[in-house]
Amino acid sequence: MKKIIIVGGGYGGIKALETFALYDEDLEVTLIDQHTYHYLQTESYDLVASKIPIEETFIYLPSLVASFEKNFKFICDEALDIKENTLICKNREYEFDYLIIATGSVTKFLKGFEEKGKNSLGVKSLRAALKVKQYFEKELFDRLEPQIAKNSFNIVVIGGGLSGVEIASEMRYFFNRYSKNNALTCGNIHIKLLSKHILKGQNESTRKKSIQRLAELGVEIVKNYVKEIDEKRVVLDNDQHIDFDFAIFTGGIEPSPFIKNISFKKDEKGFLIVDEYLRIKENIFAIGDAAKLIDHFGKTVPPTAQSAEQSGVNAAKNIIYHIKGEPLEKVDIKLRGLAIALGGKYAIVSTPFGFNIHGFLGWLIKKGIEKYYKIPLKIKALKGYKILKLCQKAE
């Protein structure tokens, strides 16, 4: 029986797990993650804006893995290093025949940003997104008091990529809705999006529509890079400064601590370099944000949920082919458009056919994409939960 370990229960790791479950090979598949949940990061903006409860933003991994039965199991442990065919974790060591590295990435903070305490946070992790949500709910509650409601409250969102644009627009829409529904004056709550470029790499139509929507909501765009950050002040690249009460950092990613620890070939940013089959070694594969993925044009593939999922499927299939002694399949990742949430029931869907769908219809499509991914996992997790309960009773 071949022992396969998947490190990381993100989008790529889950797709690899599901792919292995489709085959009848004699496999022992183990998913290892330091957390017990799969964080649905594409829905973080809804969580921060209090549009969905926290249970809608994660899938419980022990239940999900239990649903596959066979020889599938989940272990909660933190991966530290690799030695030969052994994965070194915090609690113990695990031998493998094949390994898939799917540990994703972490937010690349400005120097000192992560040390600023309660006044600044990222949103890449579930814990951080929940803290941001709680912070803003408390601020709105405090503003029920007349003496506080009169005070100006300034929020800066640093980073003009997908996450920054979605968070800024959803938070502005959230405050606008709150003010309207409760007849409160929230006009003195200001949100500024700080970035030299907005949605860099997207087509001009998508960028223009997004900027227009941000302006309509009342988000102020400051087209400068942030050079440094103090306790409650950011300094821009033109040496001007902006004071804030709270800062959300959404700009840039860097390799996870596990990737930094292991001694395999990496690119200039520290991500693993893989071959055309996603291998860093004959029996070790890297997928998603953990690897530098290249398309058939030789261009770097953006680190999205789509690219992570496709690479997870590809890596799992190539392991199966290798076990069977069949030729491996070269990877050709193709992104099938992009969906951007822009506050309330409004989204822009950039299609692979060269045109955009925006407004309420775009929002419906984005929600449909999210549900298409989430609902099957929720159903599997429920099945796994019942299996685990039966096992507990049997004991």
Q: Could you describe the 3D structure shown?
A:
The protein is built from 10 helices and 26 strands. It has helices at 11-21, 44-48, 61-66, 126-142, 146-149, 162-182, 204-217, 257-261, 305-324, 360-394, and strands at residues 2-7, 27-33, 37-39, 58-60, 72-76, 79-83, 86-89, 93-95, 98-101, 105-107, 120-122, 153-158, 189-194, 220-222, 226-229, 233-236, 241-243, 246-249, 253-255, 272-273, 279-281, 284-286, 291-292, 338-341, 347-350, 356-359. The longest helix has 35 residues, at 360-394. Helix 1 runs parallel beside helix 9 (305-324). The mean pLDDT is 87. The chain has 2 domains: 2-34 and 77-107 and 253-335, FAD/NAD(P)-binding domain; 113-248, FAD/NAD(P)-binding domain. The chain has 395 residues and is of the alpha/beta class. Strands 5-2-1-9-22-21 form a 6-stranded mixed beta sheet. A 5-stranded parallel beta sheet has the order 11-18-12-13-14, covered by helices on one side. Strand 6 (79-83) and strand 7 form a beta hairpin. Helices cover 35% and strands 26% of the residues.
Q: What is the correct CATH architecture of the largest domain?
A: 3-Layer(bba) Sandwich
* Unreliable parts: none
DSSP helical segment count: 10
The amount of helix comes to 25-40%
Number of domains: 2
Query: What is the fold-level CATH name, i.e. the topology of the largest domain?
Result: FAD/NAD(P)-binding domain
CATH C-level name of the largest domain: Alpha Beta
Shape: globular
Alpha carbon gyration radius: 22 Å
First CA to last CA: what distance? Answer: 27 Å
**How is the biggest beta sheet arranged?**
6 strands, mixed
**Strand-residue fraction?**
25-35%
- The total strand number stands at 26
* CATH homologous superfamily caption of the largest domain: FAD/NAD(P)-binding domain
Q: Return the structural class.
A: alpha/beta
Mean pLDDT across every amino acid position? 87
Strand order of the largest sheet: 5-2-1-9-22-21
